[in-house]
Amino acid sequence: MGRALIFSDPKVVELVRTQFVACAVRTGWYLAPEEKEFLKQINHPGGTFRMYACTAGGKGLPIVRSKSRLAELEAVLDNFEPEPNPKILALSAESESLEMRPPADTEVLYVVWNVLDGMELLPLDKHPVYGKLQREAGFDRLWVRKDEVQALARGEFPESLKKRMFTGVHQVFFLPEWKKLVVTIEDGRLSGSVHAQAESGKNGYQMDLLGAVETNQGKLTRFDMVAKGTWRNDQVSAYGSNLTWAGKGDREVTLAVSFTLADRNDLLAQTPPSAVNVPQAMDRYINP
Amino acid sequence: MYSPRYIVWCLALPLLMSAVAGVATNRSSADDKSVEKKTEPGHAKLTTGEFEKLHKQLQIKDQPWAAISWQPSITEARKLAAKENKPILLFTGNGHLLACG
Question: Is residue A227 part of a domain?
Fold first, then answer.
């Protein structure tokens, strides 16, 4: 939500990248008690989407609305004073155990999607806010277990991965089950199709799948896949996803989704999949 | 000795069987087509060229905000901010800034 608006200015990206430590967390579902306490300390206002600044030691640096995001962030930097040796409490063992990171031995796939056709796009000159939101690509992560990697190496697409892929990336594959799903791997070439249709109406999707899978000594070295086809969901409830806009028109759109093997040490790969919103959801997600 | 009727029957049987099988095959294939038509309302098949183009287009590293090193936890952000003498820019919400759309 809001990425397309905040970071459409390259100067904002550069300022945040070089002058701040950026952190994004989903506070609405779960946060370690120590971090909840920290948010209280900096007088974080809570609620839905917020951009807020603070120091490492716990001093809030309120963002005052200004003529532009860039001006707001520059004002924060003007008010910032480095703190000598701020006290930072380490997380308790229990809090650490509840961190929603990719479990050991899992691989991470980046999932990116966008509407290719069929959505009525607002002109950017007249609707700079909503127009940008409509065009923003969606992003999620998908975890792949070690035994699933081994199955892929044998040329099999395991059922557990099918289920996690086609129900766990729930913004796109929003139905709990599919009518037809065929995925085959032959000589590293992945192909197939997926079709899901809601019982009660016209919502559903039908996509072709094509990709490439490579493994080396039990390690996944390549997973590139694209799903492309028709998609309709007028019941989508999301926070700014372009699929919200695609659904609003009550029409079928052409959607493309890419899956790409990530370096699991990348910071972006550390963000949990959308379906993992609380620690208790991890087990259900990894063992669907 | 076989009767002429038996010989005609023996000669005709394979032809008859293949004709019946042909009808059955055609019907089966027609049925499959109708199922195909019903369940696959005609989107174009994904080609290799299209796969390569779309996969290249849909990469997270090309998104402007992905150039930022997003810390995945507040505690880690605090440690890094203390080390680098920088303020923390915190994005919070019910949804995750880096999730969905």
Answer: yes
Residues A44 and A173 in one domain: no
Total structural domains within chain A: 2
State the residue range of the domain holding A28: 3-97
Q: Provide the ipTM.
A: 0.90
B69 to A258: CB separation less than 8 angstroms, yes or no:
no
End-of-domain residue from the set A97, A132, A165: A97
Interface of A with B in 235-264 (CB under 8 A): 238-244, 254, 256-258, 260
The reported pLDDT for the residue numbered A5 is 79
Last residue of a domain, one of A46, A76, A97: A97
Closest chain B C-alpha to A239 CA, distance in angstroms: 7
One domain, residues A150 and A47: no
Pick out chain A residues at pLDDT < 70: 1-2, 47-48, 237-241, 249
pLDDT at B42: 42
**Domain coordinates in residue numbering, chain B:** 1-43, 59-93
Question: pLDDT-based confidence at B43, cuts 50/70/90?
Answer: low
Residue A23 has its nearest CB partner, among B40, B90, B95, at B90
Contact at CB, B72 and A25, closer than 8 angstroms: yes
Two structure tokens written together for A109: 């796939």
